[in-house]
Task: inverse folding
């Protein structure tokens, strides 16, 4: 097969929106390859890049643990595969979490991003909002961030680059080939973040 193979983890959450944003980003960039929904370790094994969508991190994490996907994603991350995690996806990529209301909690994590997450920092569903943010370090000076039950990053290790903040709260990070955002780039028309990710996958390939 020629071209790159990007998978969207299809357990729960906004899977279709990520498939469509990634497909459009590849077409705009003239990058060849496929975008597919992946559910099990065998499909994940074949990927060059993975997007973990927003949704409910406890559900995505628990189901992925049970069917062995979590372990396979960890192996692929260790071998350098780029991953983009949006909202619940960023929570799953992290090492440590707490909830704004519930406090310290245990849930299955990929244990890679050296960050501590606070889940639901910006409130519940009804406190959803949009805001202009900036990700200068990856060449995206302006982006419309959609925040839905969004987490923030409350602590970062030394290998973590902070890509964006809103009101002093960290809302996007990068560590090696792994990117996490508190917001949902798949829910806006702007493809810049998906394009950045496609380029990262292509370079790695
Ligand atoms: N609050 C959700 C969680 O903790 C994430 C919300 C989202 O992905 N929009 O999993």
Result:
């Amino acid at each position: 097969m020629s071209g790159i193979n990007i998978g969207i983890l299809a357990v729960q959450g906004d899977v279709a929106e990520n498939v469509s944003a990634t497909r459009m980003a590849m077409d705009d960039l003239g990058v060849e390859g496929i975008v597919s929904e992946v559910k099990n370790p065998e499909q994940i094994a074949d990927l060059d890049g993975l997007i973990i969508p927003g949704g409910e991190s406890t559900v995505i994490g628990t189901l992925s643990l049970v069917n062995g996907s979590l372990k396979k994603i960890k192996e692929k991350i260790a071998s350098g595969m780029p991953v983009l995690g949006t909202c619940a996806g960023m929570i799953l990529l992290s090492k440590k979490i707490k909830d704004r209301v519930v406090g310290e909690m245990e849930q299955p994590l990929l244990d890679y991003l050296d960050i501590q997450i606070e889940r639901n920092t910006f409130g519940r569903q009804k406190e959803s909002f949009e805001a202009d943010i900036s990700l200068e370090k990856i060449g995206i000076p302006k982006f419309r961030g959609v925040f839905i039950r969004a987490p923030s990053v409350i602590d970062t290790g030394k290998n973590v680059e902070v890509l964006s903040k809103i009101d002093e709260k960290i809302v996007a990070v990068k560590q090696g080939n792994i990117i996490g955002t508190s917001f949902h780039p798949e829910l806006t028309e702007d493809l810049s973040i998906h394009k950045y990710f496609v380029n990262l996958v292509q370079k790695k390939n």
